[in-house]
Amino acid sequence: MGDCCQSCMARIPYATMIATLMCLLGVGIFCFTMYRGASLTVIMVDQVFHLRLIWIEAVQMIFVIIGAGMAALGFMILFVGFLATGATRYKVYRAWRSRVGGRISCAVLMGITYLLNFVWSLILCFLVVVTFIYTMFWNMCSSVEHSQSCIDLTQFHFMFPPNTKLEDMKVCEKYEIKAFCKDGVENAEVMFILATLSTLLVILSLVHYLMCLSANYAHIRDHEKFQELQEMQNLNELEYSATSKDRF
């Protein structure tokens, strides 16, 4: 019983499993916080500036697709990790074709992971900019609470449609200030901060995936050399036994 449990434990790719948990956790938090943050932004822009952001719904659907795609990739890499770990590797990659297929699958997954790492780095840069802008909004809301003046967003004119008037970029009414600051900016700021931290977690998991896939590729390649040496040794033993019989 103890040997069986030990054999099963030796077949588990712990490093890949840790990376998968990190990836799923990070992607889950990212999708939830970005979906919620986008919804809060849509409501705030509609109530305060009376603008309809129709394209946000498409962006929210992209978040769902990203979550499903990253989860599928994580389970694929985890499956490859199981095949390349412990005694399972010696059974699965015994034939030449299976070893070539294993190396190709690891190489393809490494290329996809490297590309996704670049994409998530761009997402991180975008979220840093968004979080910085919302932090500025938060500071403006804090100053307005003490001065009882309007929130002037004319310096952010590039975020509004081209035909927007300058007076429409100022928030002066109390209910508009509440909808902008309390209901919109403060809650969305927390969501975007969590999304930024979760993006860092996803990037860390992708780097971890790259290390695991590189190790799995090396294990499969070394197993191929080991298999060739074992075949040569078996051939030499057969030749030695044949020559011994001929002598006697």
Automatic annotation (TrEMBL):
Recorded hits in InterPro entries, A to Z, give: Myelin_PLP
What's an example GO cellular component term for this entry? plasma membrane
So where does this one cross the membrane? none
**GO BP of this protein:** neuron projection development
Q: Please name the Pfam families in this protein's record.
A: Myelin_PLP
Q: What is this protein called?
A: Neuronal membrane glycoprotein M6-a isoform X2
